[in-house]
Amino acid sequence: IYTIPIFAQNPCSSCDTLSPYKHSIMFQYNRAFDDIRGLPDYLIYNVSFEDGLEQNYYANLRYGYRVHKNIMVGPEMMFFTQKRYFITNNILHVTSFKVGGYARFLVNRWRVFKPFADVGMSYNYVHSKYNWTNNYQPTDEEMQRYQPYDFHRFDTYIAPGMSFMIWKNHVNIDIGIKFS
Questions:
Q1: What is the mean pLDDT of residues 106-135?
Q2: How far apart are CA 76 and CA 146, in angstroms?
Q3: Using CA atoms, how far apart are residues 92 and 89, in angstroms rounded to an integer?
Q4: What sign for the dihedral angle of Cα 112, 117, 120, 125?
Q5: pTM for the whole thing?
Q6: Is 1 helix (H, G, I), strand (E, B) or coil?
Q7: Would you say the C-alpha torsion 71, 72, 76, 81 has a positive or negative sign?
Q8: pLDDT at 77
Q9: Which alpha helices (DSSP H) does the chain contain, by range?
Q10: Average pLDDT score over residue span 132-156
Q11: What are 71-93's pLDDT values in tens digits?
């Protein structure tokens, strides 16, 4: 996560000098991986599965408002897309949109790194579809197995991690793990 406090002209009078801003806008973009067993060398581009290859992309945009020197809250929007290439000549496309809120507890003890824990809740819409490649004619069994689907649900998550301050407390990189 790359954090850039865009509204930096509004310093927080109750915050300490390590985190002097009340507002921040954060953008995150990364490759997401679902399976970590036996990761291949080409992990950066694909994840290997027994039945094919998978590509995942994840983006997140959030606004944060500091309500306390250690607590930030705000809305967030997330986008996830997955493309899985099967040996059976079909491609699965899954798209997920989430809208919700989050809270971040930050330990403001050190200047260079800050441990944090995020919790959030969101409304999730997921859509999938299959495309058959190379003029492949699926069997009736395959047509039944690979039905497109849509669903709506509420999700929650917790994400502990570490935030590394890079440039004058304006840009930082967050490294963490998300459990949802």
A1: 87
A2: 32
A3: 10
A4: positive
A5: 0.69
A6: coil
A7: negative
A8: 96
A9: 140-145
A10: 79
A11: 999 999 999 888 877 666 667 78
